[in-house]
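Box 4.2: Ligand-aware structure prediction
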Amino acid sequence: MAFYLVTGGAGFIGSHMVEALRARGDRVRVADSLVTGKRENLAHIDDVEFLQGDLADEAFARRAVEGVEYVLHQAAIPSVPRSVEDPLSSNRANIDATLSLLVAARDAGVRRVVYAGSSSAYGNSATLPKHEEMPTAPLSPYALQKLVGEQYMQMFTTLYGLSTVTIRYFNVFGPRQDPSSAYSGVLSLFIRFLVEGRSPTIHGDGEQTRDFTYVANVVDGALRASVAPDEASGQVINVATGRRISLNDVYRTLKGITGATVDPVYGPPRVGDVRDSLADISKASRLLGYTPIVHLEEGLRRTYEWFASTRVGA
Ligand code: UD1
């Protein structure tokens, strides 16, 4: 039994990590500010120690890491558009908190920190698939902040010998993703609208593509990263599916799964959108023994079932 801290453990991805760790019997502490996370995301999981606070506060960060062996650092304010509107608060959550956590983890002798990086680091480069050696080109405060976090991880490995691994996520979706804002992940919005029998909006022609990754895959990738051999330390690793699909096609697939008949409404393209995104996952395979375990259609089905079962009034 190992002792894990999951920062942002009351959020979408973090809560799935907590669930997986408890299912295999590990000890889990969650540190979450509850700015975007929700206590109810953890309500179904037993024996989780919960600390509420802001990791940018040094004393809180030290309390959070006390005694832990591994840190899965998922806490962030994860929206590109929100960071464009309010770069200061996302900077504090995404950079100040990360640095404060790293200092605390270094001083507490944590064995490894696994960091949630983002495919937004690749920006709008035309090359596909995106591999980790490509130059980065952040286009938003969020993308830049996530990249600074990665570089702090690597620097702490080089300067202080703290073992770190960055996992770059690509368009993760699944149960408990919050569909409540126009900035939410597109699949949570599509599915919520279909459950409610309403037409979602597709920005642009719908031919943009994404490497949509069901949440169980990134959980698996992160847990592997926490115990992977030293070779992985200081590395940045894509964790995705290595396949891409257009919004039009994923919408068609969802219609098939849900039996919905509503068609989407097409609106103007979203400013700053990346046209195509696809991960090269060979590094994850080599260093982590990672391979996607839940494929797109099965992930969509599970996500739809969850949204349908939790619909208010259902
Ligand atoms: C980006 C980042 C991702 C990051 C995420 C956080 C890239 C490739 N990905 O995701 O790493 O974690 O931001 O916010 O940079 N859309 C619609 N209708 C809607 C909502 C969205 O058509 O109602 C479209 C968007 O215009 C976009 C696509 O769906 O073309 C995906 O959008 P979204 O789910 O917001 O994710 P990304 O912007 O790709």
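In the box above, the bound molecule is uridine-diphosphate-N-acetylglucosamine. The mean pLDDT is 96.
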